[in-house]
Amino acid sequence: MPDNQQRYRLTLTMGGRPTMDGWWASEKTARRKFAGLVGEYGSIDGATIVLVDTADGEQVLASWP
User: CA 50: distance to chain centroid?
Assistant: First the structure.
């Protein structure tokens, strides 16, 4: 289990390949970053964006599409 500095993980995948990965301690910050990625990459065909809480495994908090 990661420490609290890396609790929330955000991953952008394009064409089935991980393209961008970020970690945050704050859920609020991670959700803001998620919304930003959806705005920037959400209309690209094959892009998926997933926000997970890693405190107890891999609980998905948000995903696009």
Answer: 4
